[in-house]
Amino acid sequence: MDKPEILSPAGDAECLRSALGFGADAVFLAGKAFGMRSSPQNFDNDELRQACSLAHSMGRKIHLTCNTLPRNGELAALPDFLALAQDAGVDALIIADLGVFEAAKRYAPKVARHISTQAGVTNYAAANALYNMGASRVVLAREIPIDEIAEMRAKIPKELEIECFVHGAMCVSFSGRCLISSYLTGRDANRGDCAQPCRWKYHLYEEKRDGQFFPVEESAGGTYLYNSRDLCMIEHIPELVRAGVSSFKIEGRAKSAYYTAVTTNAYRHAVDDYFAEGEGYVLKPWIREELEKISHRAYSTGFYLGGEPGQETSDGGYIRHYDNVAVCTESIDDTTSVISQRNKFLTGDELDVLPPGGVPFIIRCLSLTNADGEQVDSAPHPTEILTMKSDLPVPAGSVLRKKRDLS
User: Residues 290-310: what's their mean pLDDT?
Assistant: First the structure.
């Protein structure tokens, strides 16, 4: 069995560095056009070149999303976009549209072509047809059970890679093809501009009783008609590997560098542990606990195993047990580090540290000094640079978290 790739998301340069620093084999990101996420900053032409250069210097890869379903008026810009991607050094294009796929053959022939989950590949016949057209990888529809992935793996060429989402937000629609946002807000999800109305709380009003509210509640918290749980397959690494999945994809190009760091680190360790330990492999508890330290909705295994509720009915928001309070930019000595603040914390606080590629540990913040050399009791200003004294060394690149008081 080949070790699967860890493929992490990046919505900007900070997320890219986070993904690479915490163990991603490859990073998927978007340019300023033709990508299915319009809300992140994304990468302009120069930034895309820099991203490829950085990744390649570390022996990693860049996959560029070109997965919108473009309209006629957008096609004129496509050749230059594809040619730029090849010139920048992009390793693969993630494509949903057959017209874009054919254009990529012509204008970016040296770049691998991956079929996006938006294409809805659910069987080996479709996978084989796409391989014959020149695809080197298929990103399967998220609705496929794990036993069907194994069957598909057995019936497609060994050269055709299978990529599957293993973590992150799930869409209520089939393979992300949704019209709810377009109808309710005019924002087209299939062009990267989803307003996520599936997460809203809905109520019922009777047609002939103007303004009279009728509660139709799934729970005391309200009615969430389309609110999917988040996907988490960290406890099922062996099954995914045995099914023949080539790439473990983490959703989240619109999410933070902190989210990217934690999820990448967790799946990196889980996969490495499995290949090191073989049949004696047991998921380490700290790895599972890490995924509770990011904002998330209730977890499930999606469609892989069946038998789990896929909808979160009690709340449309996120579960947050921890806050990301700082990033260590420099480690000066065993007790002194330079940090960039993210959320408020206090001198004397106990902080949870996740070093790049490492295992989390606890420190105590002993003192904080601002840029003027003044000792301060707290770090209340976002992105403020502070010098911190702690009881243990903090490696550069570490993220620092503080557990919320949920009492």
Answer: 90
